[in-house]
Amino acid sequence: MVVRKVGRYEIGRTIGEGTFAKVKFAQNTETGESVAMKILDRATILKHKMVDQIKREISIMKLVRHPYVVRLHEVLASRTKIYIILEFITGGELFDKIVRQGRLSENESRRYFQQLIDGVDYCHSKGVYHRDLKPENLLLDSQGNLKISDFGLSALPQHGADLLHTTCGTPNYVAPEVLSHKGYHGSVADVWSCGVILYVLLAGYLPFDEIDLSTLYGKIEKAEFSCPSWFPVGAKALICKILDPNPDTRIRIEDIRNDEWFARNYTPVKNFECEDVNLDDVFAAFTDPEVQDFSEQPTNKNAGPLVLNAFDLIILSQGLNLSTLFDKSQDDVMHQTRFVTQKPPQVVLSSMEIVAQSMSFKTHIRNFKMRIEGLSANKLWQFSVILEVFEVAPTFFMVDVQKAAGDTAEYHKFYKNFCSNLEDIIWKPPEEGNGQRFWWQ
Questions:
Q1: Which of 132, 190, 312, 407 is an active site residue?
Q2: Which of 112, 100, 98, 70 is nearest to 198 (CA)?
Q3: CATH number of the domain that 35 lies in?
């Protein structure tokens, strides 16, 4: 069994992977605390000239310490890697909750919106503008509280400049003035995105949603949307004030807080006590890796798939309910999914490669990990998925499937279609009361 460590952190399984970084479960061996470790390759970020962007993202996350923002603990480095140690959030994305439940209740929607406004307002008070607020970037902790994440597109104020000019963000959530290329106030643009999120919470779908981008942008610029009949009158009125296409007359956060619908059952969060923010580890990680040479240290080699340790299984099982390992419902699919098999790893990889290629995707296999990539269904975006085989027990293997790039809704469709063609290798637990029949059949 492979045990890998970086400094005082024992590294577990991969929980996310993209073009420039991967995220792994990890545990602080001194305190027992669970963390998420984001690992970046030095050569890759240098090649793509991303050093300044990543330093900015890390600095922002250290600067913004708030109960509704994902916390960054520290930054470590080796000669080849940067390790960002983050708060480990167990509740998944708010987006996944909406996909599973559809629209949320008025009270639940209001509570999430109140927490979102608290977190965003604190970011603004520090001069930080997120610029990519959407349900996929809002996580939920074990208590069901919201955590703002992914500050990769965030902006810090520049000396002598009041307006931002970079067009960025996710099209469906971006403010009309961002599309105009004439400059915009980051705080006001973030408020628009919050309004779109509130609409999605209450409706279960987007206010602006067109396949053709020019049509989509046209509707956003004119704020052409309508509220469903079930929207509470107060929420509808507030959304109309937020989704005002004129940034000069759009409602501000201080007025949102005074809104009657918003203020119902609202208790402002108590912020962390003021603490000094030290960025020395950030600068050292990028400029002087010799100062802190934290390298991954495997204790022994293993020719087969990585064996999941007890720590990994506990996290996967969400409170020791091991049934969650087996994806009991096809409709309960998140952007990170998994299935179990009793077939040998090489057979599993070969079967997945054949299915992926039959779906017109390209495949790349290395050791016990596969990357599937191609264009999205509408041919507009790059779509890619990471699959990795793990050993759970001597005769059981788990395939972890994660979206690396592309639309989350499209990933859900891909996963169901992909698994429907893998019935021969996917193992399913017996149905209750009938030990001879399998759920998947």
A1: 132
A2: 112
A3: 3.30.200.20
